[in-house]
Amino acid sequence: QVQLVESGGGRVQPGGSLRLSCAASGSIFSRHDMGWYRQAPGKQRELVAHITSGGSTNYSDSVKDRFTISRDNAKNMVYLQMSSLKPEDTAVYYCKMTITIIASRRDYWGQGTQVTVSS
């Protein structure tokens, strides 16, 4: 089975930086799209950033120009570099892998890592 394990969460002050990591196993990592999502208490899970197997990226408007998603296919890792953090960024952050086989598309999720931005 596919397993995704996030790490790097924690508490930071507003304006600070944090780097999240996601380690993938159980699939051919380089073939699949990856993404970061987040969910705050009382809110729906939302897309933060996405990176395709070819390396193309996109971001939600709320994090654009502050966050950077990247991947290292040799290490089966995807990263989310976060800077200029705001209290509104506080949430559990999840790593996602999307595997598409012909007419079937399946998503796999990590367990999440907590990010808290406060003074």
Low-confidence stretches: none
Structural class category? mainly beta
Strand residue percentage: over 45%
Tell me about the largest β-sheet. 7 strands, mixed
Order of helices and strands: EEEEEEEEEEE
Structure description:
With 119 residues, the chain is mainly β. The chain is 0% helix and 55% strand. It has no helices and eleven strands. It has strands spanning 3-7, 10-12, 18-25, 33-39, 46-51, 57-59, 67-72, 77-82, 91-101, 104-109, 113-117. The strands form two sheets. Strands 2, 4, 5, 6, 9, 10 and 11 form a seven-stranded mixed sheet that branches. It has a four-stranded antiparallel sheet with strand order 1-3-8-7, with no helix packed on it. It starts with a strand and ends with a strand. 28% of the residues are buried. The model has no long low-confidence stretch (mean pLDDT 96).
Describe the secondary structure blueprint for this structure.
Elements: E1 3-7, E2 10-12, E3 18-25, E4 33-39, E5 46-51, E6 57-59, E7 67-72, E8 77-82, E9 91-101, E10 104-109, E11 113-117
Parallel strand pairs: 2-11
Antiparallel strand pairs: 1-3, 3-8, 4-5, 4-9, 5-6, 7-8, 9-10, 9-11
